Amino acid sequence: MEVDKGKGEAEETRKVAEADRDTVTLKSSDGKLFEVSKEAAARLSTVLAGMIAGGSIDDNGTDLKQIGSEALENVVDYCNKHANSIPSAALISSSISFNTAPFKEPEEWERKFVDRLSHDALFDLVEAANFLGMERLLDVTCHKISEMMKGKSPDQIREVFNIKNDYTKEELEEIRQELAWAFYDD
Amino acid sequence: MTQQEEPSCSTHCPCCLQESLIITDSIFLDSLEEVEIYFFRGSTELLELIALLSNIAVILEKIIIRYEPSSAFLLSKEVREEVDSMCHPNIKVEFTVLSCQKRVITIKKIASKPQRVPAAAAIKVHPLPQIDAGPLQINCSMATDVDAGARGADHITDLPDDVLHSILARLPSNADAARTSVLSRRWRRVWTGVPALSFRYDESPSSSSAQQDQLDRIDAALSGHAATATVGVERLEIDVPYGVRDARVARWLLFASRRLNGELRVALPSETWCSRSRRWPPWS
């Protein structure tokens, strides 16, 4: 995916490219370049769609200073995989109501895609998806994180996510009482 | 930033900014803990407001800047860096795209109770923090190059609220989401921002006292939510397979009239409403 071009090559690309390009080049915070299909980028990321429509895409690599190369590689990888998969009905329906399932379940390949990520990479990807306004990728990553929480006690959740408990004993007791309804075992 | 500001309404008070920009009656800027700005397009007025806040809002912890996807290109790196640089390092700045999903959801307005302010900017006032509040988070969420190798880093706590809501919304029940309150101070109110509250029971508990307990827990959840939430609910669903007293349903509807911005669904067995002299709705 990565296209770490030399400067000369990049210049060349710029001359050839311009209007007709069907890919966009994205640049990570550490300066690595990635190419992704313009169509997929615009479809999956509201921010990239806005940038493409607004003409603020830089052919030398649009600077995404907030995203590291590992996360950006995953983003691009996701876009490419997405472009190749057949969109299911779940992806087409948009409006959410009581009559429809509240969330679109991840597809099999999407599950696999996030399952292989390390803990750190998963969270970097969530932040990147959020930053780029990639609703679907955010769905998939949030789904994964909620799976990691499901059925766990607060202590276990703290352990999984390394959350430091900064409450005093008394405060914790108070909150537990307030939330007695939530701690009831059905 | 050496300039000292009077905490009261001075010449730099945003009162002198466009009136439509600030929807609030009277607030003390120096007691703000969190500020959310909607529909940010990088205008000078808002940048001035941010600079002002950074200057005088001494306990401000977080500025959330929400922009429409279409304005993303206006928010160049320079604008973001400018915002970052003018904020005190103790202030966490979050840039978040306004999710289009949220706008789709408000399908049926059941009451004229907009908790969420639709105009140019909104300022939310939170109560003053307790004196023994833990150390402030100084992480800036825009910086992603945290020491990646560091094992045991708490990544989830740094995620923007919107993302946490979306994670909690996928847990099996509201109770699961509410239990995250005990994780740490940061998590105290997060569950109340989950857009939908849903209480759905397919099977009726065996005894009527167990039914009452179940209903009591719904009521406790609603009042707990009303007490801690800073935003309204977008969907409320209560679905129980046994009869419920009118007074209880009236309380649910009261909650809905005060806190709900979107869709309401109350499903009860039909005999509840049709039986004997009871008629529903009561005004018909």
From TrEMBL, chain A:
Domain SKP1 component POZ: 23-84
Chain intervals for the UniProt region annotation (Disordered): 1-21
Keywords: Ubl conjugation pathway
Record-level GO BP terms: jasmonic acid mediated signaling pathway; protein ubiquitination; ubiquitin-dependent protein catabolic process
Keyword set includes Transferase: no
Top-level taxon of the source organism: Eukaryota
Family the UniProt entry places it in: Belongs to the SKP1 family.
Entry function: Involved in ubiquitination and subsequent proteasomal degradation of target proteins. Together with CUL1, RBX1 and a F-box protein, it forms a SCF E3 ubiquitin ligase complex. The functional specificity of this complex depends on the type of F-box protein. In the SCF complex, it serves as an adapter that links the F-box protein to CUL1.
Assembly: Part of a SCF (SKP1-cullin-F-box) protein ligase complex.
Protein known as: SKP1-like protein
Annotated organism of origin: Digitaria exilis
Lineage of origin: Eukaryota, Viridiplantae, Streptophyta, Embryophyta, Tracheophyta
UniProtKB/TrEMBL annotation, chain B:
Cross-referenced Gene3D superfamilies: 1.20.1280.50
Domain F-box: 153-190
SUPFAM superfamilies found in the cross-reference section: F-box domain
PROSITE patterns tied to this protein: FBOX
CDD domains, per database record: F-box_AtFBL13-like
One Pfam family cited in the UniProt record for this chain: F-box
PANTHER family linked: OS07G0130000 PROTEIN, OS10G0396666 PROTEIN
Protein name as it appears in the record: F-box domain-containing protein
Source organism per UniProt: Digitaria exilis
